[in-house]
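Entry type: protein chain
Record version: 2
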Amino acid sequence: MKTKQYLSIIVALALLATGCAKDGISVDNAEENPQETVLPEDVSCEPGVMVVEFDDDMLALIESDLAAGKVVTKSMPLNSALDELGIVSMERLIPDGGEWERSQREFGLHRFYKVRFDESQPLTKASMTLESIPGIIGVEKRHRLSRRSFDDPYLSKQWHYYNDGSNGGTAGADINVMPVWEQITTGSSKVIVGVVDGGIDMEHPDLAAAVIPGGKNGSKNFINNSYVITAEAHGTHVAGTVGAINNNGEGVCGVAGGDSRKNVPGVRLMSCQIFSNDTKGSGDSEAALIWAAQHGAIIAQNSWGFDPDTNGDGIVSTMEAMAWRNTKISSSLKQSIDYFIKYAGCDSDGNQLPDSMMKGGVVIFAAGNSGIDYDPIGAYEPVVAVGAIDSKGYRASYSNYGDWVDICAPGSDIYSTIPNASYGSNTGTSMACPHVSGVAALIASFYGGPGFTADALKEKLLGGANASKISANAKIGPLVDAMGAMSYGGSNIPAKVTSYSVKPVANSIDFTWKVTGTKKNVKAVGYLLMVSKDKAALESADPKNPSSAVITSFVTVPSEVAIGQEMTARLSGLEFETGYYAAIAGCDYFSNYSGLSEIREVSTLVNNAPVLEGDDSKVTIHAFENLTVPVRFSEPDGHDVTFALDGGSDAVYKGESVEQGVYNIIISGRKAPAGTYSLKLVATDAYGATATFTKEYTILENIAPVLSREFDNILSTSIGELHTFNASDYFSDADGEPLTYVVDNSDGTIAHLNTADGKFYLTTLSFGLTTITVKATDAMGANVSSSFKVLVRDPEVKFLAYPNPVVDMLNLATGEDVEESHVTILSATGGVVFEGSVQASAFEPAAIDMSSCAPGRYSLILTIGSEEYRKTIVKK
């Protein structure tokens, strides 16, 4: 229950004055000159505007003049204020209602007039001047209306409808609307929600079919009193949450957006525009509420309020918050809310209209984004005040709070419609509020009709909310719960089960039944399966609190199962070979149960052992191999099964089961020495019955790879030349293992060798000599290697004599093959220092000892076949 305590305006002003020093406003001379203390202007109020409430005597003097558009009236005190304040107009806040005028006067709405005056006049002075006029019984400043959201749009999923805990959220911190869409209703076009906010984008593809066009019986712009609605981001976002069209292949879902593919229209949206993008002003919210009530709306969606930030610095200070707690709802807004609550859905006499879904209306307001414990509108008892949570289910940091907050909903990062066929995220109690309005619309869509009242809707809305999801310390009420609201009050108790059977399976009983529902085709949420050895105990059992003699099991109805379809579920853990009596009862969301079904007799059976099936023949594997042995298992009685695997060696372990009902055994040859072993798998059910599977396996000794042939040395006379070899010509493995190759190259600038697809690829890079070693390794790490030389030299060079200069031994390298050559070495004077035949090749050079020769120049004459070559040799 909301509680409100209002201090007098004098006390409020005093509190503000004494606290000003904290906020940088000097009041040092207040005690010396109290008459000179000036309070700061409240920038949260509209300048040059007041709403006054006249008494009946004053109205008798001035009403006809003001109705005729005059400013000067028969009231002299009022006329004197014309010059003092610069009054330019006085007009009724709520225009004449025509056929509704009598009901408007019943609520005193005709007494309120909006007075416009020179904006340079301080509001405090204007208020004091108007309050001094006889016949004026109330003067109220016009607080600027504040959209209750943050302008930080970004893409996100609609976690607020279904929160599974992904993206950092908490599972279940949502409005639980999915089961309502699936089982009960997606909304009805007979329900109209008045969206008192910025203008709805009338052409948005996700809203156009739901929003009521502007007109004498439709949407209206209260900023300029026209029927032209201008699209505004805040109002369009709010409208999308309430009623964006569902299942139409466009953008987002609305809480009560119908089902386009099933040709089920959702709720209709009446845009009552009080905000616009192109003006700082706002329309009269009171007039918007009255209009909505008189033109078919039964739910008033209000994501706006007054701003406690009186100095406009963007921060609600402690003193501003203290003063704000003493602010009360304006009389004109209070009366307008009361009017909507009484007359929405009714004719001017207060009787429910024949085609109306509800007698009276529900007014829903965002609690506010200042993070404080008060809001003057939300604290008004008849209003449904909505706080905000984040995706973790915590009170949002910005949300106002207190015992006056009735209910909460997701408000952070809410994804919805924005103008120009777009979508985006917004945050605030503004975004929480339309979730509640949408759920209220679902309630009216399903339960609405003759005799259904606004009080009944509120009872379901608030009574069905989920208090278990939100900490009481948060003080933002329980979490709105669409399914809970639809189920609240016991009116959705399903019919009792009349068609079902029972079948024993070992010490379990299988129940098979047809799903039941209510007269309005709301299916049961779940069923309680019950058995007892005592028939009398079962006959007298209360499903909500059965005795210890009754054994039970609760089963939830899957969303895809419809009324009339069969379900089968098992009640386990009974005694074997025992007689039982069985019954079943269905329940709604709040565990309100139907009557018991007929009682059936059934006896349980004996226990059956598990079953194991697999290939148990002997198997042989190489040391490098892995073998998977699949063993299919089943439990005829559906009991839990445990497994024990004795592998016989470290080679055996349990593998992942990629198929249900299969236990994979892995034998890895490399994990155990060569030998013959036996494995055993034992399956045991919950009652000790077992099944066994055995298999013998042999792991072979690993055979190292061998060199089939040596690599030949390569003499190349071309840079960039490619030589290709098959690896299998040089290396082999008796086990058939795949081999890996590692190359060691003494000089990678001369030639490069790489391996791929079982081949070696050698490429020459520059002149010179390098030695390449190739090592082949099998899967078990055994290896063999081979080396060869690669010589790359200029084709014009027929032999090499090195080193030159020579110290002692001179090497002579000729062609690729070993051949006999004749060598003569002459001194500078022509003396022969060496002459003879040598055997030489490019890779096996001949060595000539010149260590005894004196330093100097020598001539080398080399004869190969018929060719003679000469070269100068320097001896150090």
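Comment: Residues 3-40, 149-155 have pLDDT under 50 and may be disordered.
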